Amino acid sequence: MSDWMNSLPEAARLYLEGRRLDEVECIIADLPGIARGKAVPASKFARQSQFHLPNSIFFQTITGGWTPEADTEDFTEPDMILKPDMSTATAAPWTGDWTLQVIHDAFDREGTPIPFAPRNVLKRVVELYHAKGWHPVVAPEMEFYLVARNIDPGKPIEAMMGRTGRPAAARQAYSMSAVDEYGPVIDDIYDFAEAQGFEIDGITQEGGAGQVEINLRHGDPVKLADEVFYFKRMIREAALRHDCFATFMAKPIEGEPGSAMHIHHSVIDRETGRNLFAGPQGGETDAFFNFLGGLQKHLPAAISILAPYVNSYRRYVKDYAAPINLEWGRDNRTTGLRIPIAEPQARRIENRVAGMDCNPYLGIAASLACGYLGLIDEDWPTKQFRGSTYDGEGDFPQVLGDALETFEEAEALHATLGREFCRVYAAVKRNEYEEFLQIISPWEREHLLLNV
User: Fold this and answer.
1) C-alpha atoms less than 13 angstroms from C-alpha of 165 in its C-beta half-sphere
2) C-alpha span between 226 and 33 (Å, rounded)
3) C-alpha distances in Å from residue 296, one per residue of 211, 217, 328, 381
4) For residue range 425-437, what is the model confidence (pLDDT) as tens digits?
5) What is the rounded radius of gyration, in angstroms, for the C-alpha atoms of the chain?
C-alpha cells in the first residue's frame, strides 16, 4: 500500500481492506453545493498532488447558465489549483467498483485560497473565531423527502410508494411504522454512512409525506459541512437504488411542510474547553445573549444564503413547522431561534431559518458569521418570546429578490464572509432570479389566460 493510502482515515482503510482501489473522485462543492471535479484512476491519483478546474464553475447558476456579471473586466477563465484534503477521503459505496471520494480545496497560482469557493468561505469564518481564542461547534439536522420518480417537471411531485403498496402518508411525525414503509432506503443510508465512517445520531419520520430527518453529532463546522455535502449525494444514490428520488428542495410538495437544515451552535474557549454560553454557576452568559443578538441583527441580510432559491420562500409559512420571524424562545419550535433543553455545558442556540436547499458550507458560514458579529459588537437580543409566533406577523422576505437587496447592502456581513464571495454570490443569484421571472407558471395560464 502506498504512503498516501496508509494516511487514509480509518473508515476508508477498512473499506479498502483486502481490495484494490480502482478510482478516486476528486471533488469540490460549487455555489449550489453540487459536486464538481474529475474521476481519475487510483494509480494516477497516487502520482498527482493537485489538479485543475476553471474558476468559472463558481459563476454558474443552478440551471447551468453563465453569469457574466461575476467576471472581472480582464477575466480569462483561469484554472484553479485544487489540492486534496486527505482527511476527507471516504468511500463511494454505491459505485460498481472500489472508489474513494476526496474533497479538494481551491487556490490560485500564488497559493491564495479562492475567495468564492464555499469551503474556503466557511474556513475563513472559523479562522475569525480562532483568532479570538474561540472554536465554534455546530450540529446540523437534515430534512428531506423520499418521493416518487418525477421525470416530467410539469407534473406535481408525489409521495413515494411504500412497502405496503400505498403512498407514504403525511402527518405521521415520529411514527416508526412510517419509517418502516421505506425501510430499504433507510437501510442503504445506514450502510453507506457506515462505509463512509459517518455517525448518524438518529433518523426520524417528519411531518410530511415521505419526509425524513437525519441528525448528525455535533462537531467542527468544516467537518460537519463536509458530511452534509457527502450525505446529500449518498442519500440520492440510496433512493435511486429503490426506484424513488430524494429531494432537498425547501418546499417540494404543495400543502406539506418544508425541509430545513436546522443548525445548532455553541462556542468553546480553545484554551479551557469551556462552553462560552454557560457561566460558572450554569447560567446564561453575556456571550450567549450577544450571539443571539447577532443572529437577530444580521440574519435578515443572510436570508438569501440560507434560502437561496425562489422555492425556498414557500417554506416560511405559518403552522408548517417553519419560522416566520427571528424571535427567540426556550424550547419553542415556532421561533426562528430556539434554545433547546440541555445541560449548561451543552447549551446551544438552534437556527431554524436555513433550508435544506442551501449549500451546507455557506449556510453554516453565514449563520456563524452573524453570531460572530454579535459577539464582537456585543449585540443584545430582544426579550424572549413566549407563546406561538404564528399568532403574529412574519418579517421574512417573501421573494428572493427582496432578500438579495438586503444582502447586497450588508457591509458587516460582506466583511466577515469576504467581499469577493459576496459580490459573486449576489451576481449569480440575481441571474437565477431574473431567469425565473421569464418563466410563465401553470397557475398563470390556468387563472389568467381567459379571465383577465
Assistant:
1) 0
2) 10
3) 29, 25, 9, 7
4) 999 999 999 999 9
5) 22
Q: Are 224 and 364 in contact (CB under 8 A)?
A: yes
Cα–Cα distance for residue pair 232/56, rounded to 1 Å: 23
pLDDT of residue 5: 79
Single pTM value for the model: 0.95
Find the helix packing angle between 183-196 and 221-240, rounded to 10°. 140
Instruction: Write the DSSP symbol of residue 298.
Output: H
Q: What is the C-alpha to C-alpha distance for residues 13 and 1, in angstroms, rounded to an integer?
A: 10
Residue with cell 502520482: 47
For the domain bounded by 125-446, which CATH number is listed? 3.30.590.10
**C-alpha span between 82 and 109 (Å, rounded):** 10
Residue 118: φ, ψ to 5° = -55, -40
> How many whole angstroms separate alpha carbon 62 and alpha carbon 79?
21
The Cα 400–Cα 163 span in angstroms is 38
Residue 217 contacts residue 223 (beta carbons within 8 Å): no
Q: Residues spanned by CATH 3.10.20.70 within the chain? A: 3-113
Q: Are 323 and 335 in contact (CB under 8 A)?
A: yes
CA-based nearest residue to 361, from 60, 118, 130, 198:
118
129, 372 contact by CB (below 8 A): yes
Question: Other C-beta atoms within 10 Å of 86: how many?
Answer: 15
Rounded Cα distance, 197 and 103, in Å: 15
Which residue ranges does the chain devote to CATH 3.30.590.10?
125-446
Crossing angle of helices 360-377 and 286-306, rounded to 10°: 140
- DSSP code of residue 418: -
CA dihedral 441, 159, 152, 314 (to 10 degrees): 20
Q: For 377-427, how does the pLDDT look when each residue is reduced to its tens digit (9 = 90+)?
A: 999 999 999 999 988 888 888 899 999 999 999 999 999 999 999 999 999
Three-state DSSP state, 246: strand
Q: Cell 467542527: give the residue.
A: 220
Q: Are 373 and 294 in contact (CB under 8 A)?
A: yes
Fold that domain 3-113 belongs to in CATH: Ubiquitin-like (UB roll) (3.10.20)
C-alpha 292 chain-centroid distance: 20
